[in-house]
Amino acid sequence: MSSADPSKPPEFFNFLRLTTLYVIQLLNQTLACTVDLHSQVKQACWNVKGNDFAPLHALFATMATELEAYTDLVAERIAMLGGVALGTARTAALQSRLVEYPDTTIDGNAHVLALAERFAQYATALRDDIALAADVEDAGSAAVYTDISRGIDKRLWFLEAHLHH
Predict the structure, then answer these.
(1) What is the pLDDT along the chain (165 residues), one digit of tens a residue?
(2) Contact 91, 27 (CB under 8 A)
(3) CA 137, chain centre distance (Å)
(4) DSSP assignment letter at 102
(5) What phi and psi, each to the nearest 5 degrees, are found at residue 49?
(6) Where do the domains of the chain lie?
(7) Inter-residue contact 33 to 96 (CB < 8 Å)
(8) Which is the CATH superfamily of the domain at 17-82+103-163?
């Protein structure tokens, strides 16, 4: 006879509960920053002006789509660990560690610079989170962070390259 409670779904993850709660908190912080960064990229996309309008609008739209996918990736990891993904705009506004986006920016290069600063801050946080997840032996969450970090580093490279033209 099994002593398992039939009213509870089986738990297939072998993490210590405190470690899992820590990682869920870490992931929710990342989720807030990702939602915030997505909204900042959309702000740039909607308001960019100047000679580089078309390529920057397209770049910003692509970046927003990628960030939306990262948001889902992080939220799904939280759910896999048994947590609740806290991904509303209000939560992001309260929890994000990113600096506020300048609301009067319209020039293309000013948007690129503002986004590069925020992508660099986000990339640094991701690298820190890779190490934190690895420190508690959560290879799955570290892999999620690594995947996102690769994409963010590539977009930061694009932004920085635009500033040198």
Answers:
(1) 445 566 665 555 554 678 899 999 999 999 999 999 999 999 999 999 999 999 999 999 999 999 999 999 999 999 999 999 999 999 999 999 999 999 898 999 999 999 999 999 999 999 999 999 999 999 999 999 999 999 999 999 999 999 986
(2) no
(3) 21
(4) P
(5) -135, 165
(6) 17-82+103-163
(7) yes
(8) Ferritin, core subunit, four-helix bundle (1.20.1260.10)
